[in-house]
Amino acid sequence: MEKQSHALIRDTALAYARAQTQSLPGKVSIQIENIDARTALPACTPLEAFQSGNSPLLGKTSIGVRCNGNPGWSIFVQATIRVSATLLVANHPLLQNKVLNANDFSLRDGELGQPGILTDPAQAVGKMPRFGIGAGQVLREDMLRAPFVVIQGKTTEVRVNSAGISVRTSGEALNNAAEGQAVQVRMPSGQVVSGMATAAGDVEVRP
Asked: CA 188, CA 172: separation in Å to the nearest integer?
């Protein structure tokens, strides 16, 4: 039996890792570990690399390589993927729901340890922390949200569009909403309508 080249397996895993990480910001370093010399697999071509689950290819991970021939086989190759990038770090404690500006954070060289880490100031300016963030913390996408344009308990304008006719009225917002989010409004009659918050801070209702 002709044995599968371990080098070709590692090259297949490396090519896959490069393709999957090419869109990441910063400099990517990929190390594919050697395969146990005792592992003997039938030669196969072509080989196909794959990923198990939805775990990100960052840090210590594994990449699958399989043969779809007959007999088929699969093997997982250990890999270490490091991404050096410029990260956004909080300059001081950031208060929940306070709009961020460029003075609230600085750029520092570091390593991406997980997906969603912010690397561009434009990703944070104008956003609000979902919760308090301590000084020196690296900012992540899931820490921030867009500012609310509709505020719960406040009077908001409601635009009802139907059959090409637009009717404007007002009501009380029943929840906070950022642009594009759903919001419920209680009308003066007591009726509750549902619509979408717009950038202007009003609510658009479509039938």
From this structure: 8
Q: Which of 194, 202, 200, 195 is nearest to 168 (CA)?
A: 202
Q: What are phi and psi of 14, to 5 degrees?
A: -65, -45
Distances (CA, A) of 80 to 32, 52, 62, 132, 150: 7, 16, 8, 33, 45
pLDDT digits 0-9 by tens, 138-153: 999 999 999 999 999 9
CA-to-CA dists, residue 190 to 72, 152, 154, 185, 194, angstroms = 66, 16, 15, 9, 13
**Tens of pLDDT, residues 82-93:** 999 899 999 999
Distance CA 32, CA 57 (A): 12
In the structure encoding, which two tokens stand for residue 166, read together?
A: 């637009």
